[in-house]
Specification:
3 domains, two-stranded antiparallel ribbon, eight-stranded antiparallel barrel, 349 residues
């Protein structure tokens, strides 16, 4: 009992005076005061650990948002009461507000640098070449075309006219020059293009069997392919027909995005035509053996105005074009039959 009394007395003295040197006196058990146990927490020990896990303002906002989601899940699962969940979420919201205020207070100083870094990273992650093409795409372009090919006189059913038996098909040539503009319909990358322009064409028919085009030699009003008289030999006989053309065509162009005439091209359209000049000429040896040339300037009862339908297929700068007039070449009843001027030409632009 005596040892127990001394230990109790020593503990009491330390709790009351907090000193290291305390005199020990013998105390009876009945005189001991009540003993009160005091728990103390030294916060200085936890401080370094708290600093070690300190988060940035941005991280604090993200983590608090994640914790809110977790707390809501715990509330729905019955792991937390409504009061506990609401108190915890209010505390997290306060921490998000403080972190947000601190984050945006210091954000202005690094905005320019952050934007530059962000754009640099975007350039590495994304390919903006398509946007460069869109900005560089042309809405319209000038086009010069030269077409050359064969022409024929056709019936309305597209078969050769009777007069073609006196025509050298492979020497009958159409030659066209066109100055035009192609314009995109819709956006700058649209494959649909409208072409309008103005051109000149020379249609030449080469005759054989010593024939030439002429008005009725007997004084009639008609036109025909008549034999050439008073000539020993006929070396050449041609009819040259010059006209002004104004085409309008709709194209479907499969060129690479933003370009013209760099891929497959399909087009249809119409063309107005006006006669500018018409002349027939033949040359050879006359009955005396002398060289003889005769040229006649005449419209030969052809229509001054006409129109044609066009169809075209091409690849890049090369075009194949079919052209067929839809009004008879000669005036009504001026020729032996209604004939239509048609041609197939190869063009270059």
């Amino acid at each position: 009992m005596k040892i127990l009394s001394i230990a109790i007395t020593l503990g009491l003295s330390l709790s009351v005076f907090g000193g290291h040197a305390v005199g020990l006196n013998s105390i009876e058990n009945d005189s001991l005061p009540p003993i009160k146990v005091v728990e103390s927490l030294d916060t200085n020990v936890a401080a370094p650990a708290e600093e070690a896990v300190r988060f940035s303002d941005k991280q604090q906002m993200v983590l608090s948002s994640v914790k809110i989601s977790k707390i809501i899940t715990q509330l729905e699962n019955g792991e937390l009461s409504q009061e506990e969940a609401q108190g915890t979420i209010d505390s997290l919201i306060s921490s998000i507000y403080l972190a947000s205020a601190s984050f945006f207070e210091n954000y202005a100083a690094t905005t320019t640098e952050s934007v530059i870094d962000s754009v640099s990273r975007d350039d590495e992650l994304y390919d903006f070449s398509d946007f460069d093409v869109l900005s560089d795409a042309k809405k319209k372009t000038f086009v010069f075309e030269w077409h050359i090919g064969s022409n024929r006189l056709l019936k309305n059913n597209f078969s050769d006219a009777t007069a073609m038996e006196h025509v050298n098909g492979w020497l009958s040539i159409e030659n066209r020059f066109l100055f035009s503009q192609k314009r995109r319909l819709g956006s700058n990358t649209s494959p649909f293009q409208l072409q309008t322009g103005l051109g000149f064409a020379s249609t030449i028919f080469s005759f054989k069997n010593e024939r030439t085009i002429s008005k009725d030699i007997l004084g009639g009003s008609g036109t025909g392919l008549f034999p050439i008289f008073n000539m020993n030999t006929v070396w050449s006989s041609n009819w040259s027909y010059t006209h002004l053309n104004a085409p309008v065509m709709l194209h479907f162009d499969l060129s690479p995005m933003g370009t013209f005439n760099e891929g497959l091209n399909l087009g249809v359209g119409v063309e107005g035509r006006m006669r500018l000049a018409s002349s027939a000429a033949y040359s050879g040896r006359d009955l005396d053996g002398d060289w003889y040339t005769r040229t006649v300037q005449s419209g030969f009862n052809t229509r001054i105005l006409n129109y044609a339908v066009l169809a075209q297929a091409g690849y890049k700068k090369v075009k194949l074009t079919g052209r067929l007039e839809r009004v008879p070449l000669f005036r009504a009843e001026a020729f032996e039959e209604d004939v239509f001027l048609g041609s197939i030409t190869l063009g270059f632009s």
